[in-house]
Amino acid sequence: MSTEVPEYERNDAAIRDGIDEEDNKIPLWFNLGFYGMIVVGIVYLVYYTQSGWSSAGQYEAEVAVAEALAEEVRASLPTTNVFAGNSEAIAQGQEVYTTTCAVCHKPDGSGMVGPSLVDPYWKYGDSDEAKFASVAEGRPLGMPPWLAVLGNEKIWKALAYVDSLPRSDAPGVGSPDYQPPQP
């Protein structure tokens, strides 16, 4: 005796390549898997929304850790130029300035593409700390960050050289009162 359930003939059944569509019941394992996935999805959704975890929260936590680390690094940086007045450091700073900075600020520091470094106007401040931040972190609209390229020591030496340049009272390139020379 056979346990097979006979199929009823269907007039609309398609027969292609000897394979005919049968009207069998969906297997129990498939139904259990299908409804089980729905239950898992609902449990996951409830857990995800009620647990408090989110990718935005994870991002904010990582940013807070990075900001704390950056603040530690900033706090460890000197706020005054330790090479000021050191003639050997100024000579080394002149080399750095000539190879890196003079392209934009001219060899005499009077400014060309970059602002003048010898006039009394400093857009971001003229303290050692502000000058270091300008060079190390860069500034919008032209000044790239140089910390990764030069490092702390070379930046401080270049700033010692800039501080040794003769000053001018005339507004230079980048100053709000600057008037370009007339041809």
What's the mean pLDDT score?
86
The CATH class name of one domain reads Mainly Alpha
Radius of gyration equals 36 Å
Helix and strand pattern = EEHHHHH
Largest sheet: 2 strands, antiparallel
Helix content: 40-55%
- Distance between the amino and carboxyl termini: 113 Å
- For the biggest β-sheet, the strand order reads 1-2
Treating each run of at least 4 consecutive H or I residues as one helix, how many helices? 5
Count of distinct strands: 2
Q: What percentage of amino acids are in beta strands?
A: under 5%
Anisotropy-based shape: elongated
- CATH superfamily assignment of one domain? Cytochrome c-like domain
Structural class per helix/strand content? mainly alpha
Kindly identify the CATH topology of one domain: Cytochrome Bc1 Complex, Chain D, domain 2
CATH architecture of one domain: Orthogonal Bundle
User: Spans of 5+ residues with little confidence (pLDDT < 50)?
Assistant: none
Overview of this protein structure:
The chain has 183 residues and is mainly α. It has a domain at 87-164: Cytochrome c-like domain (Cytochrome Bc1 Complex, Chain D, domain 2). Helices cover 51% and strands 2% of the residues. It has five helices and two strands. It has a two-stranded antiparallel sheet with strand order 1-2. A hairpin with a 2-residue loop joins β1 (15-16) and β2 (19-20).
Could you write a compact summary of the structure shown?
By secondary structure, this protein is mainly alpha-helical.
